[in-house]
Amino acid sequence: MTFPSKRDGWLVGVLVAAMAALVATAFLPLFTEDAGALAIPFALFHLAVAGFIAWTLFGTAYRIGDDAILVRSGPFRWRIPLGAIVSVTPTRNPLSSPAVSLDRLRVAYRAARGERALMLSPADKAGFLAELAARCPSLRLAGDRLLPSRAAPS
Question: Quick check: pTM over 0.90?
Answer without folding.
Answer: no
